[in-house]
Amino acid sequence: MSPDQVVQSLARLNTFCDASETELRTIAEAGSIVTVPQGWSLIWEKTGADKAYVVLAGDLDVRRGKEVVGHLTAGDVVGEVAIVRRRLRTATVVAATPLEVLHFTREAVERLYAEVPAFRASLDRAVIEHA
Protein backbone atom coordinates (compact mmCIF):
# COMPACT_ATOMS: atom_id res chain seq x y z
CA MET A 1 0.00 0.00 0.00
CA SER A 2 1.45 3.37 -1.00
CA PRO A 3 1.61 6.29 1.46
CA ASP A 4 -1.25 7.98 -0.44
CA GLN A 5 -3.37 4.83 -0.17
CA VAL A 6 -2.72 4.69 3.58
CA VAL A 7 -3.83 8.32 3.91
CA GLN A 8 -6.98 7.54 1.89
CA SER A 9 -7.69 4.49 4.07
CA LEU A 10 -7.31 6.55 7.25
CA ALA A 11 -9.54 9.30 5.83
CA ARG A 12 -12.36 6.77 5.31
CA LEU A 13 -12.32 5.72 8.97
CA ASN A 14 -14.53 7.45 11.53
CA THR A 15 -11.57 7.25 13.90
CA PHE A 16 -9.82 10.15 12.18
CA CYS A 17 -12.81 12.02 10.74
CA ASP A 18 -11.60 15.34 12.22
CA ALA A 19 -8.02 14.99 10.98
CA SER A 20 -6.60 17.26 8.30
CA GLU A 21 -4.79 15.74 5.34
CA THR A 22 -1.50 16.88 6.88
CA GLU A 23 -2.35 15.10 10.14
CA LEU A 24 -3.40 11.95 8.25
CA ARG A 25 -0.13 11.97 6.33
CA THR A 26 1.84 12.38 9.58
CA ILE A 27 -0.06 9.45 11.12
CA ALA A 28 0.44 7.30 8.02
CA GLU A 29 4.17 8.03 7.86
CA ALA A 30 4.65 7.16 11.54
CA GLY A 31 3.28 3.64 11.08
CA SER A 32 3.96 0.54 9.01
CA ILE A 33 1.38 -1.50 7.12
CA VAL A 34 1.24 -5.09 8.37
CA THR A 35 -0.81 -7.96 6.97
CA VAL A 36 -1.81 -10.48 9.63
CA PRO A 37 -3.25 -13.95 9.00
CA GLN A 38 -6.38 -15.16 10.75
CA GLY A 39 -5.64 -16.67 14.16
CA TRP A 40 -2.50 -14.65 14.92
CA SER A 41 -2.25 -12.56 18.07
CA LEU A 42 -1.28 -8.91 17.82
CA ILE A 43 -1.19 -8.24 21.56
CA TRP A 44 -0.87 -10.54 24.56
CA GLU A 45 -2.44 -10.12 27.98
CA LYS A 46 -0.06 -9.17 30.82
CA THR A 47 2.75 -7.99 28.50
CA GLY A 48 4.35 -4.58 28.16
CA ALA A 49 2.90 -1.76 26.10
CA ASP A 50 5.27 -1.71 23.14
CA LYS A 51 2.94 -1.23 20.15
CA ALA A 52 -0.49 -0.18 18.96
CA TYR A 53 -2.48 -0.61 15.76
CA VAL A 54 -5.18 1.03 13.69
CA VAL A 55 -7.29 -1.63 12.00
CA LEU A 56 -7.63 -0.81 8.29
CA ALA A 57 -9.42 -4.03 7.26
CA GLY A 58 -10.57 -7.17 9.05
CA ASP A 59 -11.89 -8.19 12.46
CA LEU A 60 -10.27 -8.97 15.81
CA ASP A 61 -11.42 -10.73 18.97
CA VAL A 62 -10.45 -9.34 22.37
CA ARG A 63 -9.89 -12.08 24.94
CA ARG A 64 -9.31 -12.24 28.66
CA GLY A 65 -8.07 -15.70 29.35
CA LYS A 66 -10.04 -17.90 26.94
CA GLU A 67 -13.20 -15.75 27.03
CA VAL A 68 -13.97 -13.40 24.13
CA VAL A 69 -14.90 -10.08 25.74
CA GLY A 70 -14.99 -7.82 22.71
CA HIS A 71 -14.80 -7.47 18.97
CA LEU A 72 -12.89 -4.87 16.94
CA THR A 73 -13.12 -3.98 13.26
CA ALA A 74 -11.87 -1.49 10.67
CA GLY A 75 -11.36 1.91 12.22
CA ASP A 76 -10.70 0.64 15.71
CA VAL A 77 -7.48 1.37 17.55
CA VAL A 78 -5.96 -1.43 19.60
CA GLY A 79 -3.12 -1.36 22.11
CA GLU A 80 -3.49 2.31 22.96
CA VAL A 81 -4.83 1.96 26.52
CA ALA A 82 -1.70 0.34 27.91
CA ILE A 83 0.53 2.93 26.24
CA VAL A 84 -1.50 5.97 27.31
CA ARG A 85 -2.00 4.67 30.86
CA ARG A 86 1.50 3.15 31.12
CA ARG A 87 0.41 -0.28 32.30
CA LEU A 88 0.51 -3.91 31.23
CA ARG A 89 -1.91 -5.23 28.62
CA THR A 90 -5.26 -6.32 30.02
CA ALA A 91 -6.29 -8.56 27.11
CA THR A 92 -5.07 -10.63 24.20
CA VAL A 93 -6.11 -9.51 20.73
CA VAL A 94 -6.43 -12.17 18.01
CA ALA A 95 -7.17 -11.81 14.29
CA ALA A 96 -10.67 -13.26 13.71
CA THR A 97 -10.15 -12.71 9.96
CA PRO A 98 -7.11 -11.79 7.87
CA LEU A 99 -6.13 -8.22 8.79
CA GLU A 100 -4.49 -5.18 7.40
CA VAL A 101 -3.32 -2.88 10.17
CA LEU A 102 -1.19 0.20 10.60
CA HIS A 103 1.42 -0.71 13.23
CA PHE A 104 2.95 1.90 15.56
CA THR A 105 5.78 1.52 18.03
CA ARG A 106 5.20 2.87 21.54
CA GLU A 107 7.54 5.74 20.71
CA ALA A 108 5.54 6.64 17.59
CA VAL A 109 2.28 6.56 19.55
CA GLU A 110 3.72 8.82 22.23
CA ARG A 111 5.10 11.26 19.63
CA LEU A 112 1.84 11.39 17.65
CA TYR A 113 -0.16 11.73 20.86
CA ALA A 114 1.93 14.77 21.82
CA GLU A 115 2.15 16.40 18.37
CA VAL A 116 -1.01 15.57 16.37
CA PRO A 117 -4.25 16.86 17.93
CA ALA A 118 -6.52 14.59 15.84
CA PHE A 119 -4.49 11.53 16.83
CA ARG A 120 -4.64 12.52 20.50
CA ALA A 121 -8.43 13.04 20.32
CA SER A 122 -8.91 9.67 18.61
CA LEU A 123 -6.80 7.85 21.19
CA ASP A 124 -8.55 9.60 24.06
CA ARG A 125 -11.92 8.43 22.66
CA ALA A 126 -10.59 4.90 22.18
CA VAL A 127 -9.19 4.77 25.73
CA ILE A 128 -12.62 5.69 27.11
CA GLU A 129 -14.34 3.08 24.91
CA HIS A 130 -11.84 0.30 25.70
CA ALA A 131 -11.33 0.96 29.40
UniProtKB/TrEMBL annotation:
Pfam families, per the entry: cNMP_binding
Known Gene3D superfamilies for this protein? Jelly Rolls
Which PROSITE patterns would you find in this protein's record?
Answer: CNMP_BINDING_2, CNMP_BINDING_3
**Ranges of residues in domain Cyclic nucleotide-binding:** 15-112
InterPro entries, from UniProt? cNMP-bd_CS, cNMP-bd_dom, cNMP-bd_dom_sf, RmlC-like_jellyroll
Q: In its UniProt entry, what is this protein called? A: Cyclic nucleotide-binding domain-containing protein
Q: Which organism is it from?
A: Nocardioides cavernaquae
